[in-house]
Amino acid sequence: MGSIVLNIIKVIGNRLPAVHLVAVSVCAVIIGFTLMLVPSEEVSATRGDPSLTRSSQQETLKLDLNLEKDAAEPALRNTAPAAALLKNAAKERPSAETDSSDADDSAPALATSTDTTAQAVAETAPKADNWVNYKVTSGDNLSTLFKRAGLSARDVFTVSAATKDSEALSRLYPGESLSFLIQNGELKKLKHLINPLKQVLLEQDGDSYSIDIVEQEPEIEHRFAQGTIQNSLFLDGEKAGLPSNTIMEMAALFGWDVDFALDIRKGDSFRVIYEEKRFEGKVIGVGDIVAAEFTNQGDTFTSLRYTDSKGNTSYYTPKGESMRKAFLRTPVDFARISSNFNLSRRHPVLNRIRAHKGVDYAASTGTPIKAAGDGKIIYRGVKGGYGNVIILQHGNNISTLYAHMSRFKKGLSVGSRIKQGQLIGYVGMSGMVTGPHLHYEFQVNGVHKNPVTVKLPHADPVPKTERASFQATSQALMAQLETYSKTQVASAE
């Protein structure tokens, strides 16, 4: 500041008379002295530190002395070192001597320092992987999903080559999801979420991909439901809170003893203990039935699950007899009988007496038809008024016939071995019929028997070596059924 004043005086001195020069000099001295006494903003910010003030005064004195020698130099050259010294002094000030006014004044600088540090940490912290997720919809395949993710046909080929010897990505179903991690146009990782418990992870490994199949076990909890038949097993089962899969399993368990198309009556009842699968606190599905009872027209049938010492699981009565019979009572689920076994029935198309050697189950076209028992296909094709027919040969000179199919299950031919409950075809209207239905016949030694009333042989009972273990399981499950039932009734009241 002193150099500025001196320069001004020199300029004025060259242009004004002596008297005026004296007046100007006096004013300049007064202004300069005043400016020296008024602290700058930076100096005010450090006023609370006595040691710093003394140091600053010493530096200012030195600067004033030097200003007289260097008055002809630009002001910027002299003020810059002073500002630098003040800033250095502020940096060296001990934090312990800072009072409340210092804290308030230094807050903006502290915030700036914190922001800078946070920015530096953010720049050095690893960035999270940026996954892109796609839901599999009807009609999707690997190519369409890769194209949607911006990948090429070459990427599809590379991934397919890496997974050709495994089940990974072999089939995609609607509802599943594929997640892509793409960096610089390259597929680094791929996740195929099959269900909440199973996923396939592919990770780039050179020119190919490594495969890791991750499977987790769900938590299993027991659930209980009971109800009374007012309409049908399916409707009343849903009303009682049973999942549809559990209703179907219950129908299959008791299907050897109860014809749900013919025998079921209003007032029949059921109670069931079944498994519920949970994962991370959410219900993800249902498991098997643990124990169940169905009362039909006053007769109670009980089915208990038992796993033997070899790990084989099956269902038995409380006495250890197998629930599974050698034959299903009905080859179609939830159908109604439109025509019973009758050797003197009048044919609806021919309008004359003609023996009806089987049972007709009315159902919509396309309803699945199951094999009544283990056996071998001895006929598959068109058979006169029967239309599309399959005939199975079973043990003990028993055979079954399935007629009027709309189509056969693909892959089946004469000689094919069939398991009980296996899909063999679909309900239709082929042959001489008035509506879609399954015509089902049951023969023993070549003689037609009524499929509804014929006594069906049982499968093997609990082995003698497992009897003690089974009895313990049986008693525990029967006690659980009673306890659950009483608890639910009490809570309802």
Automatic annotation (TrEMBL):
Record-annotated Opacity-associated protein A LysM-like domain positions: 130-191
Pfam families cross-referenced by the UniProt entry: Csd3_N2 (PF19425), LysM_OapA (PF04225), Peptidase_M23 (PF01551)
Record keyword Metal-binding present: yes
Major localisation: other
Subcellular location: Cell envelope
Key word Cell membrane present: no
Residue spans of biased composition, Low complexity class: 106-115
Region (Disordered): 88-115
Keywords: Hydrolase, Membrane, Metal-binding, Metalloprotease, Protease, Transmembrane, Transmembrane helix, Zinc
Required co-factors: Zn(2+)
GO cellular component: cell envelope
Transmembrane segments: 18-38
GO biological process: proteolysis
All copies of domain M23ase beta-sheet core, residue ranges: 355-451
Molecular-function GO term, any one: peptidoglycan binding
Xref: InterPro entries: Cell_wall_metabolism_enzyme, Csd3_N2, Dup_hybrid_motif, LysM_Opacity-associatedA, M23ase_b-sheet_dom
Residue ranges of every copy of the Csd3-like second N-terminal domain listed in the record: 222-342
PANTHER family the UniProt entry points to: CELL DIVISION PROTEIN YTFB, PEPTIDASE-RELATED
Protein name, entry field: Peptidase M23
Lineage: Bacteria, Pseudomonadati, Pseudomonadota, Gammaproteobacteria, Oceanospirillales
